[in-house]
């Protein structure tokens, strides 16, 4: 029986979203702009020259960027050997849950609650509730911030006061950073779990625990991040596959994004390299008829939000080589789709996600142009490949 591998390269957008201007992102193009900077010699740290992604480009990456945005990305543009296209999101958020849920067949029908970019950012009742749940006299932060910056700025005050560092972004999110040793990892995770129902009721999409270690001047975040996401508002690809008795393997943060629903087995790792080892192993061992759904987050967290073009390019080139190993392991009848959940253009202003279309690159189902499709069509196509049908607006392009 057929197997399916749905692989999300977190934030690897390809521009051209028709509603990008509504998000202040008209012209943003994660892949296109990285390729341009690389070709101009502007991304030379730990790598060199034009962006080289022979495996993904061979499936149709350059063609997908051109289709999505009209941009001819330097170094990309091989004749596609896979089935390729670009997907457009309809959910009104450019965040990870919106993107993944819609890829799994369920667009988000509501407007998320966003906090204003003011100080304080949170309503007083919420700040008080966080402090009460933490057992502290107050909270630190209470603003929009980049997560690495805010622990540099407030980490020492956190160690002195014991107060949790609370911040948000252009996403519908409350993030709480705390020191693993001084505050306690279990305590931080319990705090986020306690607050999640209240925030979900306000239509805040996620509460994220952001543990860190180290000393002033040398704080660093750990891999023990935990996301508490709202429940998906509909039956997803994962639900349908699990309901049909299929094994669903969730690699990386997929389990968190779907609140564990429909997940048969979780595969976690300290970094994307470890997650890719799980994916390669699943290429050998995943059951007939199974779904493997993987997220690779470092493009987004380590490079997109940090506006690090060379780092992003390095990560893409590393990933491309690993993708080649995976493709060589696939068996006849397998489908692998490489796609993304939103953009995070490292050449763009600020430190936030960018509203973009995403590439859809399929291996194992021949050659041809899919054209422009919807995010939900990805989930519908994976389902169709597995002999399943998901509800919702998605239509299979296979
Ligand atoms: O700056 P850091 O903490 O990485 O936060 C980023 O990660 C969050 C979740 O993906 C987003 O809301 C974005 O702000
Ligand atoms: Mn994401
Ligand atoms: Mn992000």
Automatic annotation (TrEMBL):
It catalyses: 2-deoxy-alpha-D-ribose 1-phosphate = 2-deoxy-D-ribose 5-phosphate; alpha-D-ribose 1-phosphate = D-ribose 5-phosphate. The keyword Thylakoid does not apply. Pathway: Carbohydrate degradation; 2-deoxy-D-ribose 1-phosphate degradation; D-glyceraldehyde 3-phosphate and acetaldehyde from 2-deoxy-alpha-D-ribose 1-phosphate: step 1/2. Residues 3-388 form the Metalloenzyme domain. Binds 2 manganese ions. It is found in: Cytoplasm. CDD domains: PPM. Mn(2+) 1 binds at residues 10, 341-342. Isomerase that catalyzes the conversion of deoxy-ribose 1-phosphate (dRib-1-P) and ribose 1-phosphate (Rib-1-P) to deoxy-ribose 5-phosphate (dRib-5-P) and ribose 5-phosphate (Rib-5-P), respectively. This is Phosphopentomutase.
């Amino acid at each position: 029986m057929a197997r399916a591998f749905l692989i999300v390269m977190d934030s690897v957008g390809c521009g051209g979203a028709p509603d990008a201007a509504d998000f202040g992102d008209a012209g943003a193009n994660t892949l296109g702009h990285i390729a341009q900077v690389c070709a101009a010699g502007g991304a030379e740290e730990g790598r060199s020259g034009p962006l080289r992604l022979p495996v993904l480009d061979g499936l149709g990456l350059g063609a997908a960027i051109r289709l999505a945005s009209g941009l001819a990305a330097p170094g990309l543009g091989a004749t596609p050997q896979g089935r390729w296209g670009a997907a457009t999101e309809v959910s009104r958020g450019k965040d990870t849950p919106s993107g993944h849920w819609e890829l799994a067949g369920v667009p988000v029908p509501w407007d998320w609650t966003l906090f204003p970019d003011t100080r304080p950012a949170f309503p007083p009742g919420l700040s008080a509730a966080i402090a009460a749940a933490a057992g502290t006299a107050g909270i630190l932060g209470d603003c929009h911030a980049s997560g690495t910056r805010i622990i540099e700025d407030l980490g020492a005050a956190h160690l002195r006061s014991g107060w949790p560092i609370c911040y948000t972004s252009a996403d519908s999110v409350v993030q709480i950073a705390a020191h693993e040793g001084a505050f306690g990892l279990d305590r931080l995770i319990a705090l986020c779990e306690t607050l999640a129902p209240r925030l979900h009721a306000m239509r805040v999409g996620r509460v994220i625990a952001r543990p860190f270690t180290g000393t002033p001047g040398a704080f660093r975040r750990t891999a023990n991040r935990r996301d508490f996401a709202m429940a998906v508002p509909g039956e997803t690809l994962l639900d349908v596959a699990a309901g049909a008795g299929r094994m669903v393997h969730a690699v990386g943060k997929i389990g968190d994004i779907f609140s564990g629903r429909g997940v048969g087995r979780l595969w976690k790792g300290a970094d994307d390299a470890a997650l890719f080892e799980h994916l390669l192993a699943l290429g050998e061992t995943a059951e007939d008829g199974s779904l493997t759904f993987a997220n690779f987050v470092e493009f987004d967290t380590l490079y997109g939000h940090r506006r690090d073009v060379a780092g992003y390019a390095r990560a893409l080139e590393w990933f491309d080589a690993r993708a080649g190993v995976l493709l060589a392991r696939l068996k006849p009848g397998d489908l692998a789709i490489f796609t993304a959940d939103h953009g995070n253009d490292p050449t763009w202003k600020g430190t936030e996600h960018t509203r973009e279309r995403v590439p859809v690159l399929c291996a194992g189902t021949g050659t041809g142009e899919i054209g422009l499709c919807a995010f939900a069509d990805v989930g519908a196509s994976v389902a169709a490949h597995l002999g399943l049908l998901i509800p919702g607006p998605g239509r299979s392009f296979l």
